[in-house]
Amino acid sequence: MTTLKKKEKKVIKLVDKVIKLRSTNEILCATRYKLIYIYSGNLSYFSKGIRKITKKIRMFPLT
Q1: Cβ distance 29 to 55 under 8 Å?
Q2: Which pairs count as long-range contacts for 7-10, CB under 8 Å and 24+ apart, including other chains?
């Protein structure tokens, strides 16, 4: 994760915003979600906005 593409940096910025908004319980979840999207290369989802990310993170299982 040393060399990041422009899109990936944007994704991390968005997800970091989400982490600040969500409860501490869901920080793990957000981090996991961030990594899944960076490595899967599916970054288009994040361009739809923070509200949808937080919605998706809430549904994403912690375990």
Answers
A1: no
A2: 7/43, 8/38, 8/43, 10/43, 10/46
| Residue 29 CB neighbours (<10 A) | 21
Sign of CA pseudo-dihedral 10, 12, 16, 19: positive
Phi, psi of 61 (to 5 degrees): -65, 140
pLDDT class for 15, splitting at 50, 70, 90?
low
**C-alpha span between 48 and 53 (Å, rounded):** 8
Rg over CA atoms, the chain: 11
More confident residue, 6 or 19: 6
Supply the pTM of this predicted model. 0.30
